[in-house]
Specification:
11% strand; mainly alpha
Length: 181
């Protein structure tokens, strides 16, 4: 038997919780943003992000797995044709939770959970390009070192002095200069 999720249930039992999260995710994909309690928003985030990941795959099996949770075919169609292409460049983090205060009636903390539709920041793309360029440069640097097998191509050898002599020399010169002054 599968172990239940940690923490208190959102409703009365696990079946009710699954149905509630399915309805919340359906509304999120239909409207783009919903206002709910912080606890429900935090529990909805992994469910919604997993469904978006399935939608990004786009194959028939992924569509059927999403249809197990989201029962509305028009919402599934919207998820696969509109939302998933917007999230194609994004590697996770498809939703954003913003706390908005408390509810008037029972003082419950409210939050807005919404889909992140902004394109991935160009800064991240620049970082990826820089990492790729650094990898290429390191590969190119390794190749000339392998070619320098002959004595003529190899750099001139520098005699290595012991580290103690090198460090002590400037200190002695500085001490002699202080005595002269």
């Amino acid at each position: 038997m599968p172990t239940p999720a940690k923490g208190p249930r959102l409703g009365s039992g696990p079946a009710h919780e699954r149905l509630m999260l399915a309805n919340l995710s359906t509304q999120l994909f239909e409207h783009g943003r919903i206002t709910t309690t912080e606890t429900k928003a935090k529990r909805l985030r992994p469910v919604a992000e997993r469904l978006i990941t399935f939608a990004k795959r786009g194959d028939l099996h992924a569509r059927r797995r999403v249809l197990r949770v989201v029962r509305d075919k028009s919402v599934v169609h919207t998820l696969f044709t509109e939302i998933a292409p917007q999230m194609a460049e994004r590697e996770g983090g498809y939703t954003r939770i913003t706390k908005v205060g408390t509810r008037k009636g029972d003082n419950a903390p409210l939050a807005v959970i919404e889909l992140v539709t902004e394109p991935v920041s160009p800064k991240q793309a620049v970082v990826r390009e820089a990492e790729k360029a650094a990898e290429k440069a390191s590969k190119k640097a390794d190749k000339p070192a392998a070619k320098a097998d002959t004595v003529e191509d190899a750099p001139a050898a520098v005699e290595d002095a012991p580290a103690e002599d090198v460090q002590d020399a400037p200190v002695e010169d500085a001490a002699e200069e202080k005595k002269e002054a």
